[in-house]
């Protein structure tokens, strides 16, 4: 697919981008080559190819889900500026 200078200006306007008139031709060439590549990729038969989440075929080592720190609620609420019934109180921000 080949773009024209007016197409690039229109796309830039819709995207709210400023492109200098001197740069329009370069953008036409770059975007046209990208669209040509995408067009070539769409023509490839990939019906027998399974999608990949990771090309390295590796699995992550996961650590056990264990508690590593004890309950320190009383300690933290003791230094809090305002606590009521075990909850932290904050100033009202919406009237």
Mind explaining what this structure looks like?
The protein has 95 residues and is mostly helical. The protein has a domain at 5-42. It has three helices and two strands, in the order αααββ. It has helices at 5-14, 24-42, 73-78, and strands at 83-84, 87-88. Strands 1-2 form a two-stranded antiparallel ribbon. Helix 1 (5-14) packs across helix 2 (24-42). The chain is elongated. 1% of the residues are buried.
**Record field, number of beta strands:** 2
Please estimate the helix content.
Answer: 25-40%
Largest sheet: 2 strands, antiparallel
- Sequence of strands across the biggest β-sheet: 1-2
Q: How many DSSP H or I helices?
A: 3
Query: What do the pLDDT scores average to?
Result: 91
């Amino acid at each position: 697919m080949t773009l024209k200078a007016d197409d690039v200006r229109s796309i830039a306007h819709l995207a709210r981008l400023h492109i200098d008139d001197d740069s329009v031709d370069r953008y036409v060439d770059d975007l046209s080559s990208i669209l040509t590549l995408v067009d070539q990729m769409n023509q490839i038969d990939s019906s027998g190819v399974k999608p990949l989440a990771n090309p390295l075929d590796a699995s992550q080592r996961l650590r056990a889900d264990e508690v590593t720190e004890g309950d320190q609620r009383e300690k933290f609420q003791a230094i809090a500026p305002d606590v009521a019934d075990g909850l932290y109180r904050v100033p009202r921000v919406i009237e």
